[in-house]
Amino acid sequence: MTTTDTTWLVTPDTINAVDDAVDAYGVYAKGYFEFIDGRTTVVGLRVGTGEDRVVARFGDILVRHPDGRWSVRPAAA
After folding, report:
1. 52 lies in which domain range?
2. What number of other Cβ atoms are within 10 A of residue 60's Cβ?
3. What pLDDT digit, counting tens, does each position of 14-73 carry?
């Protein structure tokens, strides 16, 4: 078991690779969508289900902690 956080920068270019990496841990992940300018648009990645679910928007850093928890470091403003 690793003792350090594993991180991924979530962007339109990395979302598929990040999704695959999350899936490899056996955790549900899918695109996160919002209605923008009259269109449904992917804006990030949803990880997990239920109350433990996190959403990493494009520009955010998705974090997997050594204990299996997930969190998000928001993009710098």
Report:
1. 6-73
2. 20
3. 999 999 999 999 999 999 999 999 999 999 999 999 998 999 999 999 999 999 999 999
